[in-house]
Specification:
By secondary structure, this protein is mainly β. Helix content is 11%, strand content 32%. It has one helix and four strands; from the N terminus they run E-E-E-H-E. The strands form two sheets. A two-stranded antiparallel sheet has the order 1-2. A two-stranded antiparallel sheet has the order 3-4. A hairpin with a 5-residue loop joins strand 1 and strand 2. The radius of gyration is 13 Å and the shape is globular. The chain starts with a strand and ends in a 5-residue tail after the last strand.
Length: 47
């Protein structure tokens, strides 16, 4: 899990995902979201 400081001083938590091959080009092209059926797995957490 990656943590960043939010504008309000809070913490924003984001997960690291392994995507299915068909989703990668679209996401790398700048789309800000993925659909649930494009996620292959949730990667083990980080700090």
């Amino acid at each position: 899990m990656h943590r960043e400081s939010g504008d309000d001083g809070g913490v924003i938590k984001t997960a690291q995902l392994k995507l299915k091959p068909n989703a990668k080009p679209r996401v790398l092209g700048g789309h800000p979201w993925v659909f649930a059926n494009e996620v292959e797995s949730l990667l083990p957490g980080g700090a």
